[in-house]
Design brief:
Helices cover about 70% and strands about 0% of the residues. It has 4 helices and no strands.
Length: about 160
């Protein structure tokens, strides 16, 4: 009886190792791969190809296919317009925030003086460097395409 019990325990142990080896858990604090919802460098599939694929999958008539393609072209044009508008707004906001930051820095310099402001900037740069090192220790930079902004030198 003891032999069967030991055999069952051994098989259960081997099974649990096999299962855990196939589904490893991530270390705490790390995330899985990012899901990208944008096209990136890949060009979008043309409305004609999308309509053709849909026509094949759904057995659409030529008239239906033409209407679907027209709809896809309309959607693509609207999407492109919205993306251009968003890029323009992003650029405008960057200019606005840069101007506000510069004004705030000038006001801070007037309040605490240029020497203390320089010391403040050095402290901020050191803190950013520590954060960067900590982030790299945790698993790397999650936004490699975005370079860090350097601190603005005092005038």
């Amino acid at each position: 009886m003891k032999k069967y019990g030991m055999l069952v325990l051994g098989v259960a142990f081997m099974f649990s190792i096999a299962v855990s080896a196939q589904n490893p858990t991530q270390p705490q604090g790390e995330r899985g791969p990012r899901k990208e919802f944008h096209q990136g460098d890949k060009p979008m599939v043309s409305s004609e190809k999308r309509a053709e694929k849909m026509a094949q999958e759904l057995s659409l008539s030529a008239a239906e296919k033409a209407k679907v393609q027209a709809l896809f072209e309309k959607q693509d044009a609207k999407h492109k317009e919205q993306m251009e508008k968003a890029e323009k707004m992003k650029a405008e906001m960057k200019v606005k925030f840069d101007a506000e930051r510069k004004a705030n820095e000038e006001e801070m310099t007037k309040i605490i003086g240029p020497e203390k402001f320089k010391k403040l900037q050095d402290m901020r740069a050191e803190k950013m460097e520590k954060m960067k090192e900590h982030r790299e220790k945790r698993g790397g930079n999650h936004h490699p395409e975005t370079p860090p902004t350097p601190p603005v030198p005092a005038n």
